[in-house]
Design goal:
The protein has 2 domains: 40-279, Cytochrome Bc1 Complex, Chain C (Up-down Bundle), CATH 1.20.810; 291-421, Helix Hairpins, CATH 1.10.287. The protein is 63% helix and 3% strand. It has 16 helices and 4 strands. The longest helix is centred in the middle third of the chain and has 32 residues, at 192-223.
Length: 421
Amino acid sequence: MAGQSTYVPGSAVERWLDKRLPILRLTHDTMTTFPTPRNLNIWYTFGGILAFCLGVQIVSGIILAMHYVPSADMAFNSVEGRIMREVNYGWLIRYIHANGASMFFLAVYIHIFRGLYYGSYKAPREVIWLLGVLIYILMMATAFFGYVLPWGQMSFWGATVITSLFSALDQVIPHLGTTITTWLWGDFAVGDATLNRFFSLHYLLPFVIAGVVGLHIWALHVSGNNNPLGIDVKGPQDTVPFHPYYTVKDAFYLSLFVILFAGFVFFAPDFFANPDNSVQANPLVTPPDIVPEWYLLPFYAMLRSVPQKLLGVLVLVGALVTLVFVPWLDSSKVRSCRFRPVMKQLFWLFLLDCLLLGYVGSQGADAALQVGGFDLPLVWLARLGTLYYYGFFWALMPLVGRLEKTGPLPESIAQSVLGKA
């Protein structure tokens, strides 16, 4: 997709600027005339939606940081008292930021599953996928640090539980895990120093994410967009300029997304919040159940599915590391699941598996499901879900790619589009 620039400066000022800082040329080549497959559907709009979400989180976060006090004694009151009640429209900024995190992860999960379904991780787009995985991990870290900042009960105990996972490394090298945990805390328990460090990292990481997003988009413009058919662009008949075709389309779906976003902000601002986090942190009172935000629940279920602490941490970390190897685990020569009947069914099972893990992670550690008069501990469902998660990537992807009989591929994108007309 990378080629000769077609930008022609239209005035003396543009010519002067183009010789010194060709930013208009860059915008023209990457936005206006960038050749994009003509058959992209609604699921491809979430890339632009994610850029919007990142911008909203950065801007709202900067405003909140102006009034937040990263102190164990004052953090809770600076949020619930000052920001929510004294700062003009502070409640709105706070709700936009809090619900924006959930909207951000909702969009990124759709983006990831779309990539898995249409094979957007396969050659020559491996680097795009790897950068996307890095963005996802950075988002998870940023969300965790941000969850601690309101300094409610769930914030405090969530920070205590998650950072204590590093102590499992003591089983590998004595005192290593405890040393790392104490270093993270900045003290011998979660407190003032921890809050200051997490606040600094929460403020910094979104700008790191923005930088990696720039690389992600750059890599996309080198190899070009994948498409629902998973076939390569054969010529100009297969593409249309990004503007106005996809800018208008993306703007329309972004407006629908913003309506959904606004619905939560104005009508159900605490829909994703845990009630325990409305109570100030108390190291002497442990909540009945310590659960993370909904977008981390599948991994939390995997962690709890293993009774041994170190193995549980390895399962959790391994679930994220597995995503790095996806481009090389899939052995099929066909990208899109549209033409892979077996993998399509396995993909939908994988999606249901992730939803199941999310549900199990939201329940108590001793919760059980009544089946035919018997109590089935949910931890067993978590173990089965974890097994399928790993099996999908490490066993089914390589085997099915070699054994599956795929459907016939269209000769070109244009043929497929015109054939439906």
